[in-house]
Design brief:
Chains A, B: Pfam families: TetR_C_27 (PF17935), TetR_N (PF00440). The structure is a homodimer. Chain A is an all-alpha fold. The first copy, chain A, is built from eleven helices and no strands. In chain A, helix 4 runs parallel beside helix 7. The model of chain A has no long low-confidence stretch (mean pLDDT 92). Chains A and B meet through helix 8, helix 9, helix 10 and helix 11 of A and helix 8, helix 9, helix 10 and helix 11 of B.
Chain lengths: 195, 195
């Protein structure tokens, strides 16, 4: 934890250490303050409650997934199908790292994100809107079929790739790289069909 | 339970009643025999152990899913994409019925099928081979792209439709009918692309 980071960031870093050590139930503001060698009053000036800290941890955790995806979605010099393919592989890799490299920590974070329904729903809405933007762009450029509805196609894209990035599927179903490459190829060809 | 059914079938029916009532752990051969008003020696003549009964229950339960799908796969007078679409909707409907109509019983059966790894693996292999057959047929008829590898495409098809029929996804992710229709349309167009 560097002192150069703004205090709220350092509080969240410390909160993550405590979450990792004790889980979301037992982690508390007093222990976070002790770890940071400051009074808990200092923490409450930035976060009014433990719930506010958990919420901010979940937001930051999910943004670490969605920010690189947003960057890809915005690369309008690339074709829509290149961006969709990069988006897919980046999301898959990020989720695999989170789920498989540190399953214990993942369970804590996933549990928090699931309790913070509003946060989780907003994250999914962000991903849907990135997909919709890229697909709409592909339709406008004549790269994808004009018969597509971008919003419906975005939702279908998310579902058709779910096996490759949903945490439960990564743990239970373990799709291979070859399956991922073949599937995204078929889906992208499907978006192009009937141009 | 009709007396017209062969005894092994009636034993499995009775086993299902006991599984529903007591779960896989507590269900036992003596109780099954009592329910059927016969000696348990009579049951052991057909099934050497409780494990053999559970195995047979799992096989029958999974065949209730795969048999109608096999029928669809065999309908060679229909186009490959019609059959794949019917296969997809039939699998989805069967899994939804099983998972959502009676979640308790589903959990018991699913637990048994997961313990009987060989049975479960064979079931998945059956589904893969149905898909591979339909896709190979579609390639041979010039309906699907000749660049496809039927085996790889079958595995990719299974993964790309997983969100619509995997029990965990049906419980947690609840894809809509519209998403299912849009996704299967994109996937089928993807198989056709580049003919």
């Amino acid at each position: 934890m560097s002192d150069e980071l703004p205090l709220p960031e350092r509080i969240l870093d410390a909160a993550e250490v405590m979450l990792r050590r004790h889980g979301a139930e037992k982690a508390n503001v007093v222990d976070i303050a002790r770890l940071m060698e400051m009074s808990h009053g200092n923490i409450y000036r930035h976060f009014p409650s433990k719930k506010a800290i958990l919420d901010a941890v979940a937001v930051r955790w999910l943004q670490a997934v969605s920010s690189p995806l947003q960057k890809i979605a915005n690369e309008s010099e690339r074709s829509a199908s290149e961006r969709l393919e990069a988006w897919f592989h980046t999301l898959r890799a990020a989720k695999r790292r989170k789920v498989l490299d540190d399953p214990e920590l993942f369970r804590v974070y996933h549990g928090i994100a699931m309790q913070m329904r509003a946060v989780a729903d907003e994250h999914v809405a962000t991903l849907h809107s990135q997909l919709e933007g890229m697909i709409a762009d592909g339709i406008a450029r004549g790269e994808f079929s004009r018969e597509l509805d971008a919003k419906a196609a975005a939702r279908a894209f998310m579902q058709a790739t779910m096996a490759f990035h949903h945490p439960l599927m990564l743990m239970q179903n373990c799709p291979t790289d070859e399956e991922a490459h073949t599937a995204i190829g078929i889906i992208l060809n499907g978006l192009k069909a009937g141009r």
